[in-house]
Each structure stands twice: as C-alpha cells, then as structure tokens.
Write a sequence for this structure.
C-alpha cells in the first residue's frame, strides 16, 4: 500500500458549516421571483455541477437579471456568514494533529471572494500548503480538474493522496481524478449517493485515525 502523503480538503461543509446558508440565501432570493427551490432540487443540481441560477435564466430573465439576483444572494449569504455559527467542532484539532504527518490543501468551488470573506478572522488556512478556488482550474466539480490541479501543484501521484468531501459532486470529482475519497457526514447532504467513497466518517476527527493507519 502506497503511503498517503497529501490530504485535499473540500471547504464548504467539511471545514466550515456554510452550505446550508448558501442554499438558504439562494432559496430566499429565488422565492422572491416566484421560483421554488427545494433542497432536493438544489442538491440534485449541485451533484451534476449545475448552478441554481440556471433556473432564473430558464424562467426568462436576462443575463443582467441573473447577475443582479446573484449579487442579492451573495449579500444575504454574507449576512448569514457574519451572524450565524459556521465553525465545525474539532476542525483545528484535526489539522493540528495532521500538519506534521501530511501536507494539506483546500480544493473548493467557492469563489475567492466568498472564501476570503469566510476566513477574514479564522486560522484554518495557516495549516494549508495552498488553496485552489474557482478560477484556478478549467472545469469545476464534478469534473476532475480541481483535484488534478491540486495533484499537479503538489507534484503528487493520485495514489499518494486522499480527498475529504461531504457531497456527491465532490465525490464524483475525486473519483474521476482517481483519488480515494472519504466522505465526512454532513446533515445537509445526507441522502446523496456516496457508494463510490472509500469510507464515510461520522466526524472529521475520525480522519486522524485513517491517516495513522496508513502511515
């Protein structure tokens, strides 16, 4: 068995509890223009790499309208980020336990604007070799491009890395890149298809044991 030297973390839902607030902000803005976005539809679209804003365009709105609604969504999302508890218990403990054993990076489909807003007063990024966000690769998850770009940046083979995800979209991306993927349980994405995962972690803290077994 090849030793695992690299961990590629998804961001939203794995390191910070933000996914439900992004959905809620999107749902509220779309509801205001008569589009009912259910959680199931949102997650189904997400799993296939589709933005919920596609529904706005399908409803007959212009590209300019779509951008306006996106900005309204982002404004509401930032209000949630500023006022809701988005820390996930144990995350920094896990990173502290792992930083001397493996090299780590964040691979996210978040925009840099959103990512930087979230981490203005947080220290998670200090544990990472690098971050890849939207715009740092050609195609987004569920395509393999984000994780392939991370492997290239590390100079690593797929067999030397593991991915930690919480969504079917992210799992599909990791599998397409040929990397073992562990799903960390997240109530928001529970019910998605994780049958292709290497394992399911009930808590991110379980990752330390996974790494220790492979050292």
């Amino acid at each position: 068995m090849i030793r695992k030297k690299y961990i590629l973390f998804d961001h939203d839902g794995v390191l910070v509890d933000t996914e439900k607030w992004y959905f809620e902000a999107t749902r509220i803005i779309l509801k205001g223009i008569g589009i009912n976005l259910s959680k199931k539809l949102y997650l189904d679209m997400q799993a296939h790499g589709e933005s919920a804003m596609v529904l706005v365009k399908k409803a007959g709105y212009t590209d300019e309208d779509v951008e306006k609604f996106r900005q309204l969504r982002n404004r509401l999302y930032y209000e949630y980020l500023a006022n809701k508890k988005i820390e996930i218990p144990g995350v920094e403990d896990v990173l502290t336990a792992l930083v001397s054993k493996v090299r780590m990076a964040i691979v996210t489909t978040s925009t840099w604007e959103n990512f930087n807003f979230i981490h203005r007063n947080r220290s998670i990024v200090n544990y990472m070799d690098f971050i890849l966000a939207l715009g740092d690769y050609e195609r987004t998850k569920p395509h393999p491009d984000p994780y392939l770009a991370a492997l290239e940046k590390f100079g690593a083979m797929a067999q030397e890395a593991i991915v930690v995800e919480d969504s079917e979209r992210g799992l599909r991306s990791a599998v397409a890149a040929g990397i073992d993927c562990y799903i960390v349980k997240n109530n928001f994405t529970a019910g998605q298809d994780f049958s292709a995962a290497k394992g399911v972690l009930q808590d991110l803290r379980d990752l330390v044991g996974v790494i220790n077994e492979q050292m």
Remarks:
- The mean pLDDT is 96.
